[in-house]
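Hi there. Long-time user, first ticket. I'm pasting a complex I've been working with (about 508 residues overall). I'd like to know whether the download I got is complete or cut off, because the file seemed smaller than I expected. Thanks.
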Amino acid sequence: MIERWALVSGLKGDLETYELIQRDLKKARGVTALFVLGDMIGPERNCDALLNRLQNPRRDELQPQCIYGWWEEQLLAEQGLRGEQKADALRLNQGEEVVSALLNAVDTYHLKWLSSLQFGFIELDCGLIHGSSADIGDNLTSETSPLILIDRLTRLDVNRLFTAHSTKQFHLELTGGGLDSQVKDLNGESQHKQKVSKQSIIGIGAGASYTIYDVGSDKTHFLTAVGQCNTPSKGFA
Amino acid sequence: MKHAVISCLHANLAAVKAVLNDIDQKGISDITCLGDLVGYGPQPNEVVDLVRELDIACCQGCWDEDIIEGLNACECSYPSQLAEKRGHLAHQWTAEQLTDINKDFLASLPTSIRRDRILFVHGSPNSQHEYLLPDMNAFAALERVEKAGADTLFCGHTHQPYVRDLKNGSIRVRLQNTSNHNAEEKEINLPMRKIVNAGSVGEPRHGSTNATYVIHDDVTGQVEIKEVVYDIGLTCQAIIDAGLPRIFAWRLSHGFEFAEQAEDASHVCER
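Hi, the file is complete. Here it is re-exported in full:
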């Protein structure tokens, strides 16, 4: 049986885009799971309709499995539900107005659900996280040093890391190489050659750009949901 | 010029004096300390006073941070829950003993010291609490040094002295994205880097009871790991006299944490 995962992120309250993706997924063969890797909310529009839909999916839709992302963390921090700091990163980078807009974009009714979301999923030998295990805001791209990518894979002890924060779509595979390590201590010297394991980092995109991952063949397909109307949705159902 | 690097003094005055004497006998006056001046041992004020008096350049260790910031700042993984309870006792006792002036001194310490392309930290450039063990994934170890913009990284925290050379590295990658139909392949050559762990002066855990430190020659790049015999009995008696857990004296006299290894090895500190 074909097993394929759909990976989505960065909807930022855009219910219309989510519905377009769900429409595409109904036509796609073998998609058995839908993972939403955070940034379901954002300051640009009211996010309540999308959050309602994610928590109460329609019977004929794939049931979304959600984790929190950078924007959720900022909201939860500002509301005193995550960590000891407020939304300092957001405030510093985008100002007080955006913090206020984010607070206004999400009804407090949703905070309990948002605060219950996990940091990431481990499925098979894959890690699914908004940024990385180092930081939810870790901006991994195809230009990121492979040393950093290996570090992020090693931290999670996975062979594939699906990441979303950069909003980019890419599949970077580590195919070979090695590193000599010579250790001297009070017992003498030892040498070891560490080989690069075949591992991958996959950027899944954001918004209408999403990814299908074929578990059996280890292939990724980068897709974009296109609607009849390209004007930004207000996000109200 | 040669300089000495010491770490993890852990309030063990006899060990600190023996190591400083050994360094002095070698004609070395440039000393860098990688933190953990206090914790476990019975003479926190005496050790901090000595470091201050000699004006030794010093990073803040996890115990130093812990004493200042409160126990929640500590993310160290104890090897067992019993070890964690004993650690809490040592923390409370040390916090009560330390003078305000010595607490202020520990609070003032930087988390890293940089000299050109050499970086000195307690645990890793990421955190005072991260262990850079000698068998850590070589690529991840190289990433720590490279990210810090250093050629050589001096660290402590593990209490096991070692010198690790990372060289002849390369990584091949294949990239597929939305703009290229054919996957792009490339090979990246990695730089040569060195990690030096100074071990521990006051709480050795390398399999011997001797204090350890390292000497670095910044002209040749050579690093020597040094072991120094000290009067362990003096410190053990002081631990007992202070009312600290007797096992701290027992393990100092054995050189390894046998008791903790025998308990719940799977426990990871939740903080």
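A couple of notes from our side: Residues 167 and 199 of chain B are 23 Å apart (CA to CA). Residues 81-97 of chain B form the longest helix (17 residues).
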